[in-house]
Amino acid sequence: MQGSTARRTLIERIAAEHPTIRKTWVDGGYRQHIVEHAATLGIDMHIVRRDLTTRGFTVLPRRWTVERTLGWLTNHRRLARDYEAHPHRSEAMIHLAMINLMTRRLTAESTPTWRDA
Description:
By secondary structure, the chain is mainly alpha-helical. The protein is built from five helices and two strands. It has helices at residues 3-17, 32-40, 63-74, 77-80, 87-107, and strands at 23-26, 44-47. Strand 1 (23-26), helix 2 and strand 2 form a beta-alpha-beta unit. The model has no long low-confidence stretch (mean pLDDT 83).
């Protein structure tokens, strides 16, 4: 499936399955017609672009939040590689990893991860 077709389908599924989502940030691969289509579905989509005048690594707003979250998830061994055969199992492992992260933060407990060994 072409990227633009997949993006359109993804936005439609998000609007149908999660009607409370009203705002989203996307990377530069999204084009204006996808943004307009999202607006017709009630989603305010903002394209986060890199500043062309800067060279080297720069932190992009909102994108860093996603990268940081993926880093936290990778600390859990079952999520370090794609071991799961079914998407619902991967989703369950992500939920468990985030529950683990939240409970450790709430209790101020620092348990060693598999990387600490």
